[in-house]
């Protein structure tokens, strides 16, 4: 079992900065404003030659009502249930506060080891008084740290050693949500004997499918995640914009590993003036770029507004498989009229994805969730489609005979050869006598013919034009 360390403390003591420092990469949003972190998030880390899992939690507030701060405190309590030890962080510059004393008393009553850390200890002289005060918390000697500068991690490791399990941990996987590296197609020219589709390795079904759930604020993204995993994992509520970080959750559906990423809501760019919201939107955009399948959550009461369509177009430009999830469908009376309107808007705005899958659901009531996930698996399979070169070129001869390309300077512009150079999304290289003279309308004709013939109705298709080298050019 992987050793798990939860980082907790009152707001703005540097928990997310320390989380990023131990993880070795920027995962959590860091800002001077208190209360930036709301949902707890976890990541694999590597500390002094040992693997561990770390959890970043929301700042602890002394409230027990139904406010957002109280719900954040509930999320932190839930995170502690997954930890083997707690790192309680205080601000070494400010010293011990009444809130620190309150939660130190609460942690002492929990059945979990607690390690005390005084952060922001860049200057040892300046924080000696604050560290001396921390002994009154009853949590032992504090560890002086500077998360910003990486000081004191060796002391943290020594403090964790007594609580570490004896068995060897699993290897650390640094490839969390990494993007696919596109194939180099420059060497393809002149290699008509090589079949890229047949020589591409089969997909490893043990690796999780990366699914980003995106949309406008308050569309129900976090509610959908909670409904899928059947756990109150994400903070939800009537307030718009609760989610700020892109939170990754490992899950399985029909024995297939999945990696769900809940993202912050994305408003129109002109309305995003707050620095913190801009950072949240950048995290959402990054999640789209690194995803394989994107679920675009749309509010059925305000369906496919301009911002929804702009997000969908961004997903298409990034080459990701897209699914439209129409949430709050139980609130709609004229269902058939609305679905026709949505399909019409989608077809007009996304010509590449005219047949994008549309799933109506209610995340709050748990309706049609299996249909959504079945659609995710089938769309992902289409996104991975590979077609053999022989089949592609027999097809190419057929479409050219039925509808030849327009002539270039009075001479035929021949379609010489086509091959699929990669999947995810399906990408094809087409050798043409004069690629610069091939009109965009004919290129769309070729793409649509590929989509229809090889049954690729709802995924982006890339068509790259190439020409053979002239052996007499020199």
Shape: elongated
- Tally the helices: what do you get? 13
Oligomer: single chain
- What spatial order of strands do you see in the largest sheet? 2-3-1-4-5-6
| CATH homologous group name of the largest domain | P-loop containing nucleotide triphosphate hydrolases
> CATH fold name of the largest domain, please?
Rossmann fold
Instruction: Name the poorly predicted regions.
Output: 168-194
Average pLDDT confidence is: 83
In the CATH classification, which architecture of the largest domain applies? 3-Layer(aba) Sandwich
Count of distinct structural domains: 3
Number of strands: 15
Q: Give the H and E element order.
A: EHEEHEHEHEHHEHEEHEHEHEHHEEHE
Structural class call reads: alpha/beta
**How helical, in percent, are the residues?**
25-40%
CATH domain class name of the largest domain: Alpha Beta
Describe the structure in your own words.
- It is a single chain.
- This protein has 474 residues and is α/β, with parallel strands linked by helices.
- The chain has three domains: 4-163, Rossmann fold, CATH 3.40.50.300; 187-194 and 386-466, GMP Synthetase, Chain A, domain 3, CATH 3.30.300; 204-383, P-loop containing nucleotide triphosphate hydrolases (Rossmann fold, 3-Layer(aba) Sandwich).
- It contains 13 helices and 15 strands.
- It has helices spanning 15-23, 68-80, 98-108, 128-133, 153-160, 196-199, 221-229, 275-290, 306-317, 335-349, 369-383, 389-402, 440-453; strands spanning 4-8, 41-47, 50-56, 85-91, 114-119, 143-144, 209-215, 247-253, 256-262, 293-299, 321-327, 358-360, 415-422, 427-432, 462-466.
- The strands form three sheets. The chain has a six-stranded mixed β-sheet with strand order 2-3-1-4-5-6, with helices on both faces. A six-stranded mixed β-sheet has the order 8-9-7-10-11-12, sandwiched between helices.
- A hairpin with a 2-residue loop joins strand 2 (41-47) and strand 3 (50-56).
- 38% of the residues are buried.
- Residues 168-194 have low confidence and may be disordered.
């Amino acid at each position: 079992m992987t050793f798990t360390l939860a980082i907790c403390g009152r707001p703005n003591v540097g928990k997310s900065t320390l989380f990023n420092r131990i993880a070795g990469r920027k995962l959590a949003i860091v800002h001077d404003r208190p209360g930036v972190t709301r949902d707890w998030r976890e990541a694999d880390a590597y500390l002094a030659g040992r693997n561990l899992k770390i959890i970043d939690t929301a700042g602890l507030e002394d409230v027990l009502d139904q406010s957002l701060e109280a719900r954040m405190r509930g999320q932190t309590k839930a995170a502690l249930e997954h930890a083997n030890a707690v790192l309680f962080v205080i601000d070494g510059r400010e010293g011990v506060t009444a809130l620190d004393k309150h939660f130190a008393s609460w942690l002492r009553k929990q059945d979990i080891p607690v390690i005390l850390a005084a952060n922001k200890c860049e200057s040892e002289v300046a924080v000696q008084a604050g560290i001396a005060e921390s002994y009154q918390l009853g949590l032992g000697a504090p560890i002086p740290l500077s998360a910003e500068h990486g000081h004191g991690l060796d002391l943290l490791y020594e403090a964790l050693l007594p609580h570490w399990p004896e068995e060897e941990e699993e290897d650390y996987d640094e490839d969390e949500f990494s993007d696919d590296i596109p194939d180099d197609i420059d060497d393809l020219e002149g290699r008509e004997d090589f079949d890229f589709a047949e020589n591409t390795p089969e997909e490893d079904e043990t690796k999780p499918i990366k699914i980003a759930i995106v949309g406008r604020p308050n569309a129900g993204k976090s509610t959908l995640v909670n409904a899928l995993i059947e756990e109150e994992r994400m903070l939800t509520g009537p307030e718009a914009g609760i989610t700020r970080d892109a939170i990754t959750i490992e899950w399985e559906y029909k024995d297939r590993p999945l990696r769900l990423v809940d993202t912050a809501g994305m408003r129109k760019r002109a309305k995003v003036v707050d620095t913190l919201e801009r950072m949240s939107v950048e995290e959402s955009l990054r999640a789209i770029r690194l995803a394989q399948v994107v679920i675009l959550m749309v509010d059925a009461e305000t369906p496919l507004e301009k911002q929804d369509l702009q997000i969908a177009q961004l997903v298409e430009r990034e080459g990701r498989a897209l699914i439209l999830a129409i949430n709050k469908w139980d609130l709609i009376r004229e269902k058939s009229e609305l679905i026709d309107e949505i399909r019409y808007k989608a077809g007009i705005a996304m010509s590449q994805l005219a047949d994008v899958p549309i799933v109506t659901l209610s995340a709050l009531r748990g309706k049609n969730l299996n249909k959504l996930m079945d659609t995710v698996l089938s769309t992902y399979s289409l996104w991975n489609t590979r077609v053999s070169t022989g089949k592609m070129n027999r097809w190419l001869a057929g479409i050219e005979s039925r509808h030849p390309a327009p002539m270039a300077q009075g001479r035929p512009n021949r379609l010489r050869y086509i091959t699929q150079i990669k999947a995810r999304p399906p990408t094809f290289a087409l050798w043409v006598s004069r690629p610069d003279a091939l009109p965009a309308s004919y290129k769309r004709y070729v793409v649509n013919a590929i989509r229809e013939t090889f049954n690729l109705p709802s995924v982006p298709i890339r068509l790259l034009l190439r020409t053979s080298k002239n052996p007499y050019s020199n």
